[in-house]
Every structure is written in structure tokens, then in C-alpha cells.
Amino acid sequence: MPLSLWLTPPPTSLISTHLTTLITHLPTVHPSLHSSPTFPPHITLTSQIPLLHKTDLRALTTLSHHQQQQHPGPAVSVSIKSLSYGTQYTKKIYFRVERSRALLGLAREARIMLNGVGEEEAQRAVEREYEPHVGLLYGDVEMGEEVRSAVEDAVQGEKARELEFGAWEGRGWEGGQLVLVRTEGPVEGWEVVARVDIGA
Questions:
Q1: pLDDT tens digits, one per residue of 45-95
Q2: Total-model pTM
Q3: Most buried by CB count within 10 Å: which residue of 44, 111, 171, 183?
């Protein structure tokens, strides 16, 4: 069963609360979205991790410590850029995030330590293919004008003001948690395997 590695916001942070509320709310804004699953807010650092003995808490702790050695001072930070739409099931509606050096470095090291790829291959993957983002809605729906209008109202319009989100652009978090997740089958059945704090 393949595993994925997520970077999640600090569990008690306001940004975590607001993102969780938004992810839970979006399937209600239009009938075509009602079957969309909900999930914890996160950025996927890498996926398709083989289920090996090293993919446990020790591996995450090692990755966290390595990150702190490579980037001393404040921990990896996440900064939201803009609302976007995609065609993939798990990238239908999402926030783009800043491709910071620390975040890309963490994704690179995750590929080396957990996927078992070489340094050059990991570097190429991060530079050419990796698009860090915070997913907001999964689904196979058509994103027509009416659906987009409802989504944008929830994210940055009147409904967003009612939910007291404030402006999203530039918001984010520092640190958080590295979370190893079994991501096979329906989203509702995804299972956390291990998690570790990454210092702020």
C-alpha cells in the first residue's frame, strides 16, 4: 500500500482551523460538490512511498532533524499565493503556495529518505514537477462558471467574510507536523501511520 508524506499546519493554529472549516464547507456550496470528501489541510511533500520498515516515526524524526540542520533558524514556512483550479481528482480546487527554498528542500529530502531515489533525481523532480499546494476540494466535477462563483464566494466573498476568514493571500504557517499517511482507496479510509512535529 503506498504512503504519502504531508506537511500539516500546527494543529491548534488559527490557519488550521480556518482551512479545516473551508475544506468542510466547500462541498456544501453547490449541489455538484456534495459528494466531495473532506480531509485534513496539508501539503503533500511526496507520495508513492513504498511500505518499508524505514517508513515510521524514526524516519520522520530523522527528516525533521535534517531539515533543521539544513535550514537553521525558523522552521519551514508556508505562504499561500492564490486560489486555483485543476483537472486531477486530488487537485480540483486548491491554494498555490510559495515555492520557498526550505519547502522545496524538505520535499527533496523526503524523496531521498523515503522514496529511496538519488539526490540528482530528487532535485530534478522538485525543480521540474513539484507544485506545492494546499488542496481544498477533491472530485471529478466540472468547474463551470456557476460552481466557480459559489466557490469564490466561500473563499473570498461574502460567505468568507461571514466565516471570518480574512484575506488568504500571504497567510500561512511555520513549522507544523510531518504526517505519514496510507493513501490507498477512498479518501475516507486514509490512515495516519506516524506523525512528528517540525519545530517553528
A1: 999 988 754 556 677 777 776 666 665 555 789 999 999 999 999 999 999
A2: 0.90
A3: 111
Q: Give CA–CA dist 87/136, Å, rounded.
A: 13
3-state secondary structure the chain: CCEEEEEECCCCCHHHHHHHHHHHHHHHCCHHHCCCCCCCCCEEEEEEECCCCCCCHHHHHHHHHHHHHHCCCCCCEEEEEEEEECCCHHHCEEEEECCCHHHHHHHHHHHHHHHCCCHHHHHHHHHHCCCCEEEEECCCCCCCHHHHHHHHHHHHCHHHHHCCCCCCCCCEEECEEEEEEECCCCHHHCEEEEEEEECC
80 close to 135: Cβ distance less than 8 angstroms: no
d(CA 94, CA 168): 12
C-alpha cell at 88: 486531477
Assigned C-alpha cell, 149? 462563483
Within 10 A of 192 (CB to CB), how many other CB atoms are there?
12
CA distance 38 to 13: 19
C-alpha grid cell, residue 82: 492564490
- Cα separation, 19 vs 42, whole angstroms: 9
Q: In the structure grid, which three cell numbers stand for residue 97, read together?
A: 503556495
